[in-house]
Amino acid sequence: MVFDDVPTLGVEEEFLLADFQTRAAVAAAPVVIKGAQEILDDQVAAELFPSMIETRTRPVATLKDLRQELRWLRSGVATAAGEAGCRAVASGTVIIPPSGRLEVTDQERYRLMAAEFGPLVTGDQSAGVLGCHIHIGVADRDEAVELGNHLRPWLPTLQALAANSPFHNGEDTGYASWRSMRWAQWPGTGPAPLFTDAAAYDALVDALVSSGMLIDRRMVYWHARPSEHCPTLEIRVVDVNGDLDTVLLLAGLARALAAVLLAEARSGEPAPDIPDPLLRAAHWRAARDGLRGSGVDPATGRPAPASELVGQLIRRAAPALHAADDLDVVQGIWERLRTAGCGADRQRAVFRQRDDLRDVVDLLTLTPGKG
Fold this sequence. Notes:
Helix content is about 45%, strand content about 15%. The strands form 4 sheets. Strands 1, 2, 3, 4, 5, 10 and 11 form a 7-stranded antiparallel sheet that branches. Strands 6-7 form a two-stranded antiparallel ribbon. Helix 2 crosses helix 9. Helix 8 links the parallel strand 8 (about 190) and strand 9 (about 220). The protein is of the alpha+beta class. The model has no long low-confidence stretch (mean pLDDT about 95). The protein has 14 helices and 13 strands.
C-alpha cells in the first residue's frame, strides 16, 4: 500500500478548572479565558460550564508540530489559570466536586440546552465531562462519512487507550472512563450509523433536529462525525489526558488508521457492517476496563485482552505510520503505556499512596512551560 501523503491533524482538548488550594471544580472560566486569549487568541474558548475551557490546535501535518501546538496551548492555559488562582486539570471528569451547583455558561445555546434537557445537563452536581476530539483532514463531506463508516470497529480500542476518568465527585466509579458512561446519557451519542453518503447523513441529522431530540446540528455527539465547520472527520470518543505522549499516540494512530482505511475505501473495499449492539458492548468494555482488562473484538464478538486489540490496531495502521515516519514514536509510547497503564491506572496508583484525591488532581494539573 502506497501513500502519497497522510491526512492533516487537529486536536481539541477540554480542561477542568480547579481551585488551587482545595482542588475542587471552580467557576473561573471567564477570568481564565480572558487571560489565556492574550497568549492564545481564538484558540481557547468557553464550554458548557464555567468550570471548563477548550483549546483548539491549528491543523498540522506532523506529530512533531502537534506536540509543539499542544505544549504551547497547555502552557498558556496553565499560566492563565495560575494567575486566576486555580489549576487547569486534564481529567475526563470532576474529581473533587464544587461546593455548590454550577450554572451553565451564560450563552444562549447553553441556556437552551439546560432548559431542554434538564438534569442531563444540571444534575449530579454537574460541572461537566471533558473530552479530547481528534480531527482528521478529508477531501470533502462524502469522504468524511465514508471514513466514519470504516472507523467504527476501531474506536473502542482508542477509547480504552485514552481512559482517564475513574474518579467522579469524590468517588472511584469502578470504571476506567466514567466520562464515557456519563456522556452516553445524552441524546445523539453512541456509534454513528452506517451511511451511504453525506446526503444520507445530512438527511438523518436534519430529521433528528426537526424531531426536537437535538437542538441543532452541532448536537450530533456520535463517536465520529463530519465536522460542521471544517473539512474533517471528528473523533469524539476519547477522554482528555494529562500525559501529552498519550494524546500524540491517540492522534498518530487515528490519523494513520484513517489513511489506511481511506485507501481501502477508494479501492472499493466496503465498510464492515458491525451490529450496533456489538459496538456498544465493545465501547462499554473499553469504558469499564481501559487497558487492564478485556475488550470486545468487534469482528468476532469475543473477548480479547485490550493490549492485544491495541496491537492489532497498530499493525493495521503500520503502513501509514511508516509513511508518516511515526512508527517508532507510536511504538515507543505504546511500550511505556503497556507497562504503566492508561491514565485511569496512573490516577488510581497515585491515590493509593495516601488515599487523597488532591494528589490525583495534582498529577493531572497542567504546568506552565511544559503543558
